[in-house]
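User: Working on a comparison across species. This one is Chaperonin 10-like protein from Lipomyces orientalis. Can you predict its structure so I can line it up against the others?
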Amino acid sequence: MHMMKEAIVYGDPLTVEIIDSPISTPGDGEVLIKVEVSGSNPKDWKVPLYSNRPHNSGDDIAGTIVSVGKSVLEFKPGDRVAAFHQMGAPHGSFAEYAIAYAYTTFHIPDSVTFEEAATIPLTSLTAAYGLWDILGLPTPWRPATEDIPLLIYGASTSVGSYAIKLAKLAGIHPVIGVAGSSAHVALEAGADVVVDYRNNEDIAGSIRTHLRPGQKLLYAWDTVSEHGSYLHVIKALESGLGLHHSIKAAEAAHESRLCLILPECSFNDIDTTKTKFGIANAAVAHGEDAARRDFAYVFYRQVAKWLQEGKFAGHRYKIVGGGLDGVAKGLKELKDGQVSGSKNIFRIRDTPGL
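Assistant: Here's the predicted structure for Chaperonin 10-like protein from Lipomyces orientalis:
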């Protein structure tokens, strides 16, 4: 049996154990990937903590195809790919080899490094679900034909940055970001303006100064969704009619609409008679809803095309030294709020002893 190194993340306290594990065989519809670079996300320390279940929690994969399972048609050994691993499933990205479903795997052109590719899978899909499923905004395939103001709170986060890039591809304008010291990241992504939340007693007022007279702010994507961020967003939004088209179907006209990210709280202080909200969660890509699975499949193939055409790019990143030995440090930096405007990534080949 062939073995590999794998990092197991423990939640309380946050620690990482490097173990020897058997290399898995891909099942029906799956691919086995030799991981060159793994990305990381806040959920990678949160899920082991909240679930009290130590596991390899990495989900952002960039590497090369080793083998494919039954019914896989698009990929062959040696293909350069990135992939979104199923959250909570075995064989995550903090390892020498990982398993992903073929439909959440996509080709990367030679012009895109594994480092850049590792920043894309989870957070770009989260951003896309937020814009087009929760908010029902115009898409790059049916772009906006008139001005639609969009507020993105946490505009320099990876989800926020991707939301800006995708919104611009869809012709959405103006895009108003809210960020702090990494505001330049949001501007580089394409935000029309960025409001600084630091030492700002009227964030909502600062946001609204960037609307034309009579212009209504009906759509907002809060990629932070904690420490009261969404209360500032709601204050900036105003009631008014908008037409919402989700992935599933068109819905009736509604008041202003807000997208939130995975909850740290109940959001029970939101008045849903004035503000409709939904929660974007990339995990639905591997859920029972066929429409959202299909959306992930189509989205990732469009991302591959945009990467080839130079219309889309990954997020800023920082390489944490030590490969798998650096996972503990990288996740602790995320937990302690030390990561701003970039993603921590790990080059697996940098693991001592490999």
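For your comparison, note: Residues 240-244 have pLDDT under 50 and may be disordered.

User: Helpful, thanks.
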